[in-house]
Amino acid sequence: MTEYISKLLVKATFSSTLSIPGYQRINTDLNRGSGGLFVYIFYQKTSSKEDAVTGIKVLAGGRNMSTPDCYFKISTDCNSWSGGAYVYVFYTQQDGGQPITEIEVISGTNQDVMPLSSDECNRIDTNLNEGSGGLYIYLCYKTENTEALEAGLEPVAEPVKQSP
Questions:
Q1: Beta carbons of 149 and 130 less than 8 angstroms apart
Q2: How are beta strands 4-13 and 38-46 bridged, if at all?
Q3: What are phi and psi of 153, to 5 degrees?
Q4: Is pTM, for the whole model, over 0.70?
Q5: How many angstroms separate the first and last alpha carbons of the chain?
Q6: Contacts of 127 (CB under 8 A, 6+ apart)
Q7: What is the pLDDT of residue 162?
């Protein structure tokens, strides 16, 4: 049975061992190499397609940036105490998007870093460590549609609704 990402959290901490009951942690520190707090992404999974995250955005800018329509803003700055730009993660569970099945964080010494399986994973092109002087760090995700293609299956298109 396919599992979907259902909730996301970003937490800044003085401890590299932070865990949150009921959540899985991606073990890459989003402030790696920048000297700020330890910052980690946590997520929950569900078997319910209706509760799945269907879109993720990462935006860099000011502390009070506006939230894109139909998205939730995770209030923790991914660059906490690092001196870089304010970077926030947003997600939506709105109908119409492809349910997200996996997320990962990649890092490297330049902006060209790509996931090992770049044809299977969607990289969000905003550096989570923007302006901090640390490593280039990006959030990547796979959707249910991506997994169908990997298995050699054709994606199932939603039926077109016709008006009466």
A1: no
A2: antiparallel
A3: -95, 150
A4: yes
A5: 36
A6: 60, 87, 111, 136, 137, 138
A7: 34
